[in-house]
Amino acid sequence: MSTGLSLRGLTVVYPGTTAVQDVDLDLADGEVLALLGASGSGKSSLLRAVAGLEDVASGQVRWDGRDVVTVPVHRRGFGLMFQDGQLFPFRDVGGNVAYGLAGTPRSSREAVVRRMLHLVGLPGFERRAVSTLSGGQAQRVALARALAPRPRLLLLDEPLSALDRALREQLATDVRTILREQGTTALYVTHDQDEAMTVADRVGIMEGGRLVRVDTPEGLWSDPGSAFVARFLGFGPLLAREEVVALGWGQAWARAAGRAAAGPGGRPGGPAAAGLGGRPGGPAAAGTGGSPEGSALLALAPGALSALAPGSRPDLPRARVTGVRLRRGDRLVEVDLPGPGATAVSSAAAATGSGGPAGSAEPEAATAPATPTAAATGVAGAPASRTATAVLAASAGAVEPGDQVALLLDADRTALVRSDP
Ligand SMILES: Nc1ncnc2c1ncn2[C@@H]1O[C@H](COP(=O)(O)OP(=O)(O)OP(=O)(O)O)[C@@H](O)[C@H]1O
User: Fold this and answer.
1) Distance from the CA of 82 to the center of ligand 1, in angstroms?
2) Ligand 1: which atom is nearest the Cα of residue 41?
3) Which residue from 243, 343, 383, 414 puts its CA 20 to 30 A from 195's CA?
4) Does residue 224 register a pLDDT over 70?
């Protein structure tokens, strides 16, 4: 008998909309799983169906092997926490935290409240009026209230999304610690991938009511699997093989293909051995052993590219800067990657007087320039240029739109993904 939460074929239908479609999911005891997806992808509907707040059109919600679909909300033993906390305004903080402890003797109730407030970083707040709390404090109280009765499953729906980013980052770390300390099994809905990756052991990605991927944060980063998931995680741009070769990054392609063949995270014999991204029989399985081509794209993870000073490293591909901006302490440049008529790479290098063919960013491949044949190979229908984001190396100095910078590729921060239809 399976323990914890099991969803089988879970489907939620509203008039005119199938919000959740045929979802299978297992959540082990003590595991925290984040559901991540764009607005309208069905995350909240799934969570609400598990809670019993939404009717299930078909499928099962099992706890410890027993279907609870017909069990009313308050009998499921699940805790709930929402975006706006929904604290009771006429009770003080202690009264809110004690709400789910009605059957507990007064003395132990007070002890639990004290312990919970300590756990969420608000010791001594028992007698505070909830109207005097900041947004972050109110959410901490809501978390303490949800945890106090020791629910067997905690369901959190965007619990931090009303808070500003700095507070959200801090609280996400605290929530993770608190859930771990309590050994709480939790399903956590968010549209913020940083929050999902911080809080959860595994992350499930939803698209159009379907759960399209479930993996650990590390697994998702090393092998997003599909172009949809890669884009959702912020990988970009996604390059066809011809473009990769034309840019002189063929070695990155080969390494990513090797990783895909060896399994996520490079584990030989891992589940991906049978095909690209761990899906046995996927498009790569039919390709040439371990080097998927036709249907695959090279996805660049955020931070995969560094930009070097204009005029430096003539051996590297160059790109035109279209914008410069700051993000969380990094200086970023937007660059136009030359398109598949990648003579642009070579001619740009020649035009700046730096000479030499476009080589690979990887030292071991420096002698493997983009050949004229590769450069002439276009990708039918592909755009003439791609915008990429590169971290500006400190050595780059002042860079302005219009400059040609050299691009260094970190081949470990690339992944091959299936090109979605
Ligand atoms: N009560 C409802 N009646 C009709 N349609 C609904 C209802 N609730 C949600 N939907 C629809 O179901 C789909 C899934 O909505 P849901 O709220 O589950 O998505 P979500 O991923 O949680 O989105 P968000 O991040 O914006 O909260 C959407 O198309 C939405 O418009």
Assistant:
1) 15
2) 21
3) 414
4) yes
